[in-house]
Design goal:
The protein is of the alpha+beta class and 134 residues long. A hairpin with a 5-residue loop joins β4 and β5. It is elongated. The two termini are 33 Å apart.
Length: 134
């Protein structure tokens, strides 16, 4: 009986904390709610080293707030073969309903720049809610 008296309030506190924390949604849930509306790949240099910057915009077309979007860019050669990838997690970013955010990824290519013929950006994950924990 004493064990129930002690564990009962702890269970209630645990449930309350769980409801306050954001939940990561699998791809099928946020697909259709977040959209990549524009991306671009920009070759450049940082000092004397070549770099590739991928910039883009994510639009929230839902009525929910989403946070911490993770995007992956897949680079392909002229024959359409995958030659490199990079992932970016914007852990401190929120996308309000009907809002947009920009993102930028910069990487030092491991191959000659002419091998990076095309790119595709894929939204891999996002969290429902503000993503802030108290």
């Amino acid at each position: 009986m004493a064990l129930l008296v002690i564990l009962g309030p702890l269970a209630v506190v645990g449930i309350a904390i769980e409801r306050m924390l954001p939940s990561e949604k699998p791809g099928a849930v946020y697909q259709g709610q977040l959209r990549l509306v524009q991306t671009d790949m920009i070759p450049g240099k940082l000092g004397s080293q070549p770099v590739l910057a991928v910039v883009g915009t994510i639009r929230n077309v839902s009525e929910e707030t989403w946070s911490s979007p993770q995007v992956e860019v897949q680079f392909k050669d002229a024959d359409g073969r995958l030659v490199d990838t990079a992932t970016h997690l914007a852990y401190d970013r929120m996308i309000l309903p009907a809002g947009e955010i920009g993102f930028k990824m910069t990487l030092a290519p491991e191959l000659p720049l002419d091998r990076y013929h095309s790119w595709q950006v894929v939204l891999r994950s996002a969290r429902e809610g503000t993503g802030m924990c108290w």
